[in-house]
Amino acid sequence: xxIDLLDKFDPLIEQRAALxxxxxxxxxxxxxxxxxxxxxxxxNGKRVTLLGTYNxxxxxxxxxxxxxxxxxxxxxxxxxxxxxxxxGTYAGHKACEEALKDFYAMDHAMVFSTGYQANLGxxxxxxxxxxxxxxxxxxxxxxxxxxxxxxxxxxxxxxNDVDALEKRLNRLPAETGKLVVLEGVYSMLGDVAPLNEMxxxxxxxxxxxxxxxxxxxxxxxxxxxGVAEAQGVIDDVDFIIGTFSKSVGTVGGFCVSNHPKFxxxxxxxxxxxxxxxxxxxxxxxxxxxxxKLMHGSNKRAHLWENSKRLHGGLKALGFTLGTEEPQxxxxxxxxPDLAKGAAMWEALLAEGLYVNLARPPATPANMTLLxxxxxxxxxxxxxxxxxxxxxxxxRAIGVLA
Length: 401
Ligand SMILES: Cc1ncc(COP(=O)(O)O)c(C=O)c1O
What we know:
Number of strands: 16
Structural class: alpha/beta
Number of helices: 14
Bound molecules: pyridoxal-5'-phosphate
Order of helices and strands: HEEEHHEHEHEHEEEHEHEEHHHHEHEEEH
Distance between the termini: 55 Å
Strand content: 15-25%
């Protein structure tokens, strides 16, 4: 008898079928037929404002970024067909790593094919079988997967709870390797970690610290280096992980560090060695974008304005939000349940707005969320229109009185 290995997904298949049987548009198979700008696209045949792209700094249509990509495509071809440690390191990969070193003012930078692989590779290479990874329970999947790949002992602590982190650390044997893994901004609720306290507690317990700044790069901190910079602890962080798929506006991942032995990781990190490197056009767009983000203070200021305007507007309407005050470019609107959340998502699309629908297990505390990610290219008028669309959809669905 063959055991059908897909049987375990039956509950999910049934839940999805039940939702679609109500006539709902599938929130997880939307097609972007045309993209006009970082903030406008044609989705499922309709022109919509984009509010769920993580394209925080609007770099995807920057003329210099596009020109760099086209030139690299012409000069180096469409792909490297090779690993970074064999035939897959071109001048463009080194230039991209130089741009990262300058952006973060750090000694070393290693570019991976995605941010997922950067976490997978760095965490699994640093923390092996007898080491401990101490992580926030709401950590991104790539962080959990990095622990699993390295067979590290996982110790999770309550989300953003400094005391819980300290207690967990103090219970661990003194003689073992410890890596505390934190995120600057947690992407589900858009809340920021108290890195200043957490880094201090971790260092006092003899742990090394890695911070994933995927959702803060380019935006948070005086130079856009992230929450660790904003809270004055970047010099105490051993490793920063990031992605090119958000503020940088393309695809790829990286780790930067001042650790003197960092370069050895290139030879021992499996998700760096055993995969093809990014195409030359991608690293050229990334390097150009990163260098432009160094001078992005006006855009950063406008993005903060947008975040405050949207948060204030939605709160005034009576929506329950993921944070009391705006803390990042992510504003999460908490829905009462999946059915209402999916209906609201569809009503917003009908109004002309695209947001992300997030549901368990990706969300904390079994919440259904409409996650909004703002862009520096959203005008103030667009943000006002977005608030009006939330009001209309909320009243139509009965989420607002
Ligand atoms: C916190 C965090 N880390 C890492 C990643 C992975 O980034 P990438 O899209 O480059 O694989 C994401 C993406 O969603 C993320 O939110």
